[in-house]
Amino acid sequence: MAAFLDHIRRGRILPEALATGAGPLHLALVFNIDHTNAMACASAAITFSAAQSMPSARAVADGGR
Description:
mainly alpha; 0% strand
């Protein structure tokens, strides 16, 4: 049961980081993770968010159509 709950908790870190602005201190406190993991999750959320906001290569090639 503990492994299942840990899996659910890990699945919530990225969505929480995206929803709250990827603050590593917030992630560390809410999910009780160390600062290294909190920074890695925050960095992943920022990277993911930036990738989502960039237009795709196909859209650029098609002139935005």
